[in-house]
Specification:
The chain is of the alpha/beta class and about 350 residues long. It contains 11 helices and 15 strands. The structure holds NADP nicotinamide-adenine-dinucleotide phosphate.
Length: about 350
């Protein structure tokens, strides 16, 4: 089968030898009676996949490995004890690594049936980005309609899902991003206010908006960016606010002063979505089921920034690195006749 291989750690946008497309990788076999083989149709490219190849991700993998986490596809073979799925079913799931390939094997307990009225390509981007934001905002922060949510990196993968989930929950959503295209996109998703960091100072701009709505401050900060932006945004937080630490796309891990957290009664949540698969898989299962149901009712949409083939991997990683993505960057691995129709 065809697959993207990481042969050595390095920046795939600069170093030609770090990744390659191989057409002779063995198709993975069913090893347990509850295994299911999926013909992958689409997989999403997350910032974490870039970090995996750079060797900067929190989990390390022996070389060579096939990167890739969340995907969607069609069940192609089932083990003798598989009762939940049959050949031909549309499914989506997430793996530690291995989804940037034509076939992948997963235990039936890790798969989700994609409802008929959901776009299969879009479902390939649901688990990591939307799953992270759903667990963060619904399970951890328990965001309510009376609260103000501030989303950083809001036009990126996890950010744009947080904006949409915030709106489904009825919160007032402030989105922070860079540039006119991202600004327009976030307004189209229903963000109540968008700060364009190219032209505006985040503190002044958000304060002006809050005043115009008679709101005191921010109740929940959703932060996949880190660095100076986080430090600035702490000046906007209410007494009793919650900080969701999602990631450090800026490359800079922020320091959150414990003395201010004490005085202001802040709650700081570190959130590593993937680790729920080990520690609380039921939370992820409920979360993805709810997301698939929201998607089938058009309450959330997966905006595809661009879908690439595996042979265009360097371009795809550049889109992430250069902050050009507006929504999700995807790989498509198969003929998507009929699957692209809803895009
Ligand atoms: N905790 C978890 O379980 C979990 C799950 C998924 C992702 N993450 C993490 O969340 C972060 C974002 O992931 P993502 O998939 O949403 O990435 P993405 O699609 O590339 O979006 C990241 C956003 O961050 C902003 N940004 C600010 N400074 C940046 C810089 N120096 N380089 C790149 N982007 C920068 C960009 O927005 P502007 O250009 O508009 O400023 C960009 O849209 C990553 O650190 C990732 O590892 C964590």
């Amino acid at each position: 089968m065809e697959a993207l291989l990481c042969r050595k750690l390095g920046d795939p946008t600069l170093d030609n030898s770090s990744i390659e497309v191989s057409k002779s990788v063995p198709i993975p076999e069913l090893k347990s009676p509850t295994d299911v083989r999926i013909k992958v149709k689409a997989c999403s490219l997350n910032y974490a996949n870039y970090l995996q190849i750079l060797g900067k991700y929190q989990e390390k993998y022996p070389l060579p490995f096939i990167p890739g986490s969340d995907y969607s596809g069609i069940v192609e073979a089932v083990g003798s004890n598989v009762s939940n799925f049959k050949v031909g079913d549309p499914v989506c799931s997430v793996a530690n690594v291995g989804s940037f390939a034509q076939y992948i094997v997963a235990d039936q307990s890790e798969l989700f049936l994609v409802p008929k009225d959901c776009d299969l390509l879009a479902a390939g981007a649901l688990p990591v980005a939307f799953g992270t934001s759903h667990v963060a905002l619904v399970h951890r922060a328990q965001l309510t309609s009376k609260q103000v949510l501030l989303v950083l990196g809001a036009a990126g993968g996890v950010g744009f899902s947080a904006v949409q989930i915030g709106k489904v929950l009825g919160a007032t959503v402030i989105a922070v991003a860079r540039g006119a295209e991202k600004n327009k996109f976030l307004k189209s998703l229903g963000a109540d206010y968008v700060v364009d960091l190219i032209y505006e100072n985040v503190i002044e701009s958000v304060k002006k908006f809050l005043k115009s709505r008679n709101l005191k401050g921010v109740d929940v900060l959703y932060d996949p960016v880190g660095g100076k932006l986080t430090k600035d945004c702490m000046k906007l937080l209410n007494w009793g606010a919650q900080i969701l630490i999602i990631g450090f796309a800026s490359g800079d891990i922020p320091v959150i002063p414990a003395n201010i957290a004490l005085v202001k009664n802040w709650t700081i949540h570190g959130l590593y979505w993937g680790s729920y698969r080990i520690h609380q898989p039921g939370v992820l299962e409920d979360s993805l089921k709810e997301l698939l149901s929201w998607m089938s009712r058009d309450l959330i949409t997966v905006h595809i920034s661009r879908a690439y083939s595996l042979s265009e991997a360097r371009l795809a990683f550049s889109a992430i690195k250069d902050r050009k993505a507006v929504g999700k960057v995807m790989f498509t691995l198969d003929d998507l006749n009929g699957v692209r129709s809803k895009l």
